[in-house]
Amino acid sequence: MSEGEQPVEHPITSELDLHTFRPAEISSLLPEYFRVCRERGLLRVRVIHGKGTGTLREGVHRLLDQMPEVVSGYRLGDETSGGWGATWVTLRPEAD
Question: Given this model, what pLDDT does residue 61 score?
Fold first, then answer.
């Protein structure tokens, strides 16, 4: 964030549309977003990365592969939930 820019509030839901973020923000955004989702009991999240060239999707999947809070892997959407332009992620519940 450059000087003078204010953070943009983004509602935390079970859907995260990455179209509003720069690719460089994704590596810090996903862990933080998932942390808050887990705190709120949102354990199934649809990440919308778009179809495009697949670069963003591949980057998202690389991050997901490294995140211990992601369980049961993840899968691309089906014909009703975004197809290969979205990924469903299952999160591990927060430890008590």
Answer: 94
